[in-house]
Every structure is written in structure tokens, then in C-alpha cells.
Amino acid sequence: MENTSDFYKNRSMLKKCEKVHNTVSKVYCVLCALIMLASFLMIVMSISSGEVLKFAGIFLSAGAVWYLGVVGVYKKIDIFSLAAPALALISLLLAKSVNASFIMGAVSELLFIASVICAVISLPANMKYRWLEQQYGFPYFNERQTEHELDMIQSDIKDRYAIEVEEIRKRNQGAGDMEEISAPDTIAVRPQETDRSGYMDEI
């Protein structure tokens, strides 16, 4: 069992990991939402032009970056965290290839840079979080909470053991009752003997 100092270190490390995850998710939410809003407005404004598909591509790629970035940190999926910058680069290239507004271009560049930074800081945080999951006391790293959970587990084990013992006792008692039941007494019927000697005298 770990001591108080280990609990404190692990609890502090867990808080840092959660802070990184929350910050990364907020960055993705804000930047991707801005790009998706701007691209949606451009889709509406250029519905009759040939660039509408490119704006739609920007909208979809920004949505994919949003999904991969947020899920990558909350589900601790490293491949998602690495894929987010790649899609952010695609969104940036599409924004550069169309007559996008200055705001959309600037936000697309900012999203790409931010996604690279988020991937760099989220990967170590994911690794530390997975390590913490294997440590004693996760996720509270609190002695009282951990002891309470252990007491509940032991109580549950005792309850299940008591139920099994009671079932075994009932089965044994039932088997003993069956042995006490004896078969009914049989009455032997003997054939009636005839007085053969008297019968022969009468002949």
C-alpha cells in the first residue's frame, strides 16, 4: 500500500493531466467553432459559385479536427491527437486556396499551430494518465476514500461468502432430511396351513 506522499504526488500529477486535457479541448472547441461558423457563412454566400465545395471541405475538416482533438484527450487516444494537426493542415490549405476572408485564414493558421502544440503536450499527458490508472488509489488518491472502497469490496465478498455458505447448509440439511425418511414397513403374508392329517383321516 502506498504512503501519503505517493498519494499526494499522484494526485498532483493527475490534476496536471486533467488541466492539460481541459485546456486542449477548450482550444479546439473555440478555434474550430470559429472556422466552422465562418465557412458556413461563406457557403451560404457562395452557394452559386464553384468554391462552395472548398468551403464545405473547410467546414468538414474543421469539424473533424474538433472531434479528433477533443476525443483524443478525453479518451486518451494518441492516434486521434496526432491526426488532428494533419486535418488542421488540410483545412488551412483549403482556406488558402479559396477567396477566404482574412479572419478565416488567420484562424485556420492559428488552428494548425495550436493543434501541433496541443498534440505535443497532450501525448505526454495521456501517457502519464494511463500510468496513473494502474496505480493504487486511482482516481482519488485519498487514503480515506481508498479505505472506504476496500471496506465495501470486502463487505461484498463477505456477503457473497455468507450466501454461498447458507446455500450449502440448506442443501446439506435437505439431504439429511431425505435420509431420515424410512421406507414403509411391509407386512409378510403367510399362506394358511391346512390340516392335511385331518383331511386324510376323513377320506
Written overview of the protein:
By secondary structure, this protein is mainly alpha-helical. The protein folds into 2 domains: 4-137; 140-170. The chain has helices at 4-45, 52-74, 78-97, 102-133, 143-180, 196-202. α1 runs antiparallel to α2, α1 runs antiparallel to α4 (102-133) and α2 packs parallel to α4. The radius of gyration is 40 Å and the shape is elongated.
Count of domains: 2
What gyration radius follows from the Cα positions, in whole Å? Answer: 40 Å
Distance between the termini: 109 Å
State mean pLDDT (0 to 100 scale): 80
| Number of H- or I-type helical stretches | 6
Strands, total number: 0
Strand content: under 5%
Helix/strand order, N-terminal first = HHHHHH
What spatial form do the alpha-carbon principal axes imply? elongated
Structural class: mainly alpha
Give the tags.
203 residues; mainly alpha; 2 domains; 6 helices; elongated
